[in-house]
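Thread amino acids onto this structure.
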């Protein structure tokens, strides 16, 4: 298995990932920025793999997605969760579905809260063993924080969804699971994100104070401490969800 994390210089808003299986020549691109398409193509060429799948973990509000364009360039399937409000054609992902790229398996966890269509990806490298070892938590769960629930309004309702997604799906995972988030400190998609780049489920359960709160307290906390909206948010969300 290979995995490459991609951050645009001086942009904390979103972290992209490229991972896959060199022995079987398959790759998966996740949360691609529009300005970063060639980087993914170059990474695939250098490793001798084809990009088989392109996944957006939700309709983004903080950057222009390059997912559709990369799919068109490479012939890869472009994927969003089935609940996505995108008006164009995409391959619909379902909760608990698994995507395979050679020896790499990603299990889809539908985690509404940041957006209705938000997903996390639970990863297994079958060359090492049958058990998952990492979670691409993207904009649902950050290190030391969680995603903001107010991008489309209804923030209290979405905050409650976020609580359920985190407590019922993510914090039930084995404590050794490594958390690889979709943003770092300074992102507009969550408040109070730690400068620590990665974490584990066990560490966050022990040390993230927001997980000690009741559901009502959690919703009050995540709706009271919201960063400013991303610049050009409405424009970006429209571009990412329409042809």
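Threaded sequence (243 positions):
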């Amino acid at each position: 298995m290979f995995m490459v994390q991609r951050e645009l210089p001086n942009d904390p808003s979103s972290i992209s990932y490229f991972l896959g299986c060199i022995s079987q020549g398959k790759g998966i691109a996740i949360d691609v920025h529009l300005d970063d398409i060639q980087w993914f193509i170059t990474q695939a060429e250098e490793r001798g793999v084809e990009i088989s799948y392109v996944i957006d973990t939700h309709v983004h509000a903080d950057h222009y997605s390059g997912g559709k364009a990369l799919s068109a360039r490479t012939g890869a399937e472009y994927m969003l969760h089935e609940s996505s409000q995108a008006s164009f054609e995409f391959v619909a992902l379902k909760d608990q579905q698994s995507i395979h790229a050679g020896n790499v398996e990603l299990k889809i966890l539908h985690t509404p809260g940041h957006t209705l269509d938000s997903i996390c990806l639970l990863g297994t490298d079958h060359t090492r063993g049958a058990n998952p070892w990492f979670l691409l938590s993207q904009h649902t769960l950050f290190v030391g924080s969680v995603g903001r629930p107010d991008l489309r309004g209804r923030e209290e309702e979405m905050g409650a969804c976020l609580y359920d997604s985190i407590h019922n799906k993510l914090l039930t995972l084995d404590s050794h699971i490594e958390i690889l988030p979709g943003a770092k400190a300074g992102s507009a998609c969550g408040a109070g994100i730690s400068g620590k780049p990665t974490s584990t489920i066990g560490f966050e359960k022990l040390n993230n104070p927001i997980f000690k709160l009741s559901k009502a307290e959690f919703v009050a906390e995540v709706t009271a401490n919201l960063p400013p909206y991303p610049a050009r948010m409405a424009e970006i969300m429209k571009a990412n969800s329409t042809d």
